[in-house]
C-alpha cells in the first residue's frame, strides 16, 4: 500500500493527468482491440469479395481465350490479375492436366507476427472458378491468397494506427496538461488576492479568464401437234386442214401481233393488232422492213437486229414507237420453207408482255425499296446521331423514289417556323436554315407547286415559294412525321416535272417516316431513361450513381494534372422529425427546397447531387486548390440550409452537418476511400 502511495503524484495536475492517462489508455486499448478485430474481419471480407469480383472479370477474358486455345493471353490475364492484388499465385488447370502457374512478386519488407498470419490464413480460402463456355468445361482458374502479405499489410496498418493513437494520446495529454495547468494557474492569483486583502483592499477579487442504330411456245406446240395429228390422221383432207389452219390463224390474230415477212425481210402482211401496236397505217407498214417499224432494243444497251436465217428466232425485245412510249414484246420469227427446203417467207408472232414487264419492274423496284427500308431500319435501330439519321432518311427517300430532290423538314409549332434538317438536291437552301410558313397558320399556299399527299387537303406544303422556284420544283410528296401524336415535321421528295405519285410511293415514304418517328421515339426514350438513371426523381438533382461515375471520371482525368477536386457531404439535421411530424409530402418539399438552395450556392464548376434520404453532396473542381474557398462554400451551405423553410404555411428550421474531402490530399486513385474521408 505504501508502495502505491509512493507512486501517487504529489501535484493535482499530475494526479489528474495520471487518472486521465489510465482511463484513456484503458478505453483506447479496448477500443483499438475491438476496432482492429472488426477491421481484420471486415478487411478479410472485402478482400474475399474483391477476389470473387476479380476472378469473375478475369474468367471472362480467360473464357474468350481458352475457346481458341490462346494460352499466352490466358497467361497475360493471370499476370494482370496478380498485379497489385492480394493473391500469392494464379493457376489455370485445363482438363488435360496442363497447368499455367504464376506467382506474385515477393512479399513486402517486414513480417507480421505468426499469430496474425495464422489468423488471416485461417479466414482466407482459395478462390476457384470453373472455366465453362457454352456448357463445356475447359478447366479451372484458381487464385491463392498471399496470407503473409495481407497479414503484413494489416500488421503495418495496426502499427501505424497504434502509433497514431499513441501520438494522439501524448498530444492529448500535453494539451490537457497545458489546459489543466493553465486552469490551475489561476490559483496563483490567490497570492495577489491575498496580498490585496492584506493591504486593505477588501473589495478585491481574484480575476478568472473565460476561453466548429411462256404462252406462245405452248400455242405453237399445240398448233404443231394439231397439224401433225391432222396430217397423220386425215391425210388428203386439205380443205378440212385449211379450215382448221384458218381458224387457228384467226385465233392467233386475236391474241398475237402477227406479220409475214419476205425472205429479204420486207413486211408482206400484218394483222389488225400489228397495225394498232405499230401506230403506222397498213400501207406504210407494207413498205417497211420489220426492223424499221420500231426502234428495238434486245437489252439495255444493244439494239435489236434480225438477220434472216433458216432457224426459229425468239426472244424479248423492247420497242419504241412514234410516241416514244416503250413496249415489250415476246417475239418469235418462224421460217416457212418451200419444197426445196429454202425459206419462202417468215411469220413473226409477237405477244405484248408490257404489263408483265412492268409488273416485274414493279416487283424489282419494290424489292429495292424494301431493301432500302431494311437498311434504313437497321440504321435507325443503332444510329445515335439524329442529324445523320435525318440525312440518311432524306437520301433513302430520294433513292427509293428515284428522284433527285428530298428534304427532312422539322416544324416548330411555337414560332410557326420550318427548319431544314436534311436535304438532297436542294442546293439553294442551307441545312439548318429556318423560315416562317403560313401553312402552319392554316393559310393558303402561294408557292404554286403541286404537292401530293396521303390526305385530300394537301396540307403538307411546307417548302417556301422561293425554294420551290429556285430548285425548279413542280411536284412533290410530303409525309407527316409524328411521335406519340405529336407533329414533328415532314419527310418530302420533289420532282422537276409533273410527277404523278402512286400509292406505292406514298406507302414507301410513309414507312420511312414511321421508321424515323420510331427512331426519334427511341432516342427520346433513351434520353429519358438516362435522365431517370442519373437524376433523383424528387429533387431532379443528379443521384448517387451519377455522382459516383462523375467522381471516377474527373479523378481519373486529373491524376496527370495539378487540378484538385473537393467533395462536400451534407446531412440535414432534424429532417426525420419534420418528416414524422408534418408528413412525408412536407418532407419532400423540404428536400426540394434544400436542393434548390444548394444549387444556388454553387457555380458552373460544381455539381450538387442527392445521395438519398436527407443526404446531399457537392463536387467542386479547382484549377488551383483553395482550402479557404471550400470552407467558405461549406459555411455558405450551412448558412443557406439554416434559414427557415416555408412548408405548408409554416416556417420550419433545420440545420446541416457537412464533411469535406479534398483530392488528391485525402486519397489518390481510390474514389471510395476518398469519399469516406469526407
Describe this structure in words.
There is one protein chain. The chain has 678 residues and is α+β, with helices and mostly antiparallel strands. The protein folds into 5 domains: 2-35 and 161-185, no CATH class; 49-156, Beta-Lactamase (2-Layer Sandwich); 256-357, PAS domain (Beta-Lactamase); 383-530, GAF domain (Beta-Lactamase), CATH 3.30.450; 535-675, Alpha-Beta Plaits. A 6-stranded antiparallel β-sheet has the order 6-5-10-9-8-7. Strands 13-12-11-16-15-14 form a 6-stranded mixed β-sheet. The longest helix has 56 residues, at 12-67. It is elongated, with a radius of gyration of 48 Å. It comes from Pseudomonas savastanoi pv. glycinea str. race 4. Residues 313-365 form the PAC domain. Keywords: Membrane, Transmembrane, Transmembrane helix. This is Sensory box protein.
